[in-house]
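Researcher: Go.
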Amino acid sequence: MRFSLLLTCAVAAGLALPPTSVAQAPQVTKVSANTNISNYLLGNPAASKNQLLYLPADLAGATAGTINRVYFRRGTASMSGVALSDFTIKLGHTSNTTFVPATEFYTGLQTVLNQATYNPGAGAAGEWISIPLTSAFTYDPAKTLIVETSFTASTATYVYTDGDPHSGANAGKKLFSASATAITGTTTSSVWQHFGFDLGPVGVRDDAAIGASLSIFPQPATTELHLSWPAAPAGPITLSLYDAQGRRVREQQTSAELVRLGYSALPTAELAAGTYSLVVAVADGSRFVRPVVVTQ
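Model: Structure:
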């Protein structure tokens, strides 16, 4: 279905501008009601390097695709001002369900983010820290996902993240060290992190640098999905919606002017309930991927 929402009509109808920032929850998550908090991830030098394992059963419902954004959930309210030096995220796969040997980090992982300085920013307890990746990772849902974070220095230690007690079913799935370059570590951390990620169609990369202000709402959507992107590049914009199997189910065009003001929308009433990926393509060839949930 082709659509065109004209700005003059929107203003005449008295439509309110959308919020400038809309929180996006992860498309795929590993969370539970059994929570614990720890600063052994994003700040405490005692855990400058972390690796976590997420088994296929931990990420139930995930499908093959491209991970373009990862998330960790805040355990307590966090203030801005934390600076992590040489912050790096790496992802990889293994057929194992634990670390083998038990104290050795996995190697050969793909670097998906490296920033000279990273600040997780402020936020309330229970909110997700959203981290766009600079290199997409092709995810295989049949294998254990390896997630590594590291940094070389930190200006504060008070970014607490949420997770499960590191015991029982989660024993042996988190390894950490005080050194960002360590080969071995310890599994004694009390928290196995709650985690999430967004999946795009295979082969589509999220050029995230200028896409930080791109918001998709409401989530979940019922009859219509709105886009707001104050920093949208000039020129035509193509919106492509993919289902969980990577099939394109809708495509249409809009303009940067309408998207900047939040007056572009996708009809969703005819779609089956489920999880989708919205690929926003701009004139210079950049692609931006966002998760979409539809309910009926």
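Model: Residues 7-12 form the longest helix (6 residues).
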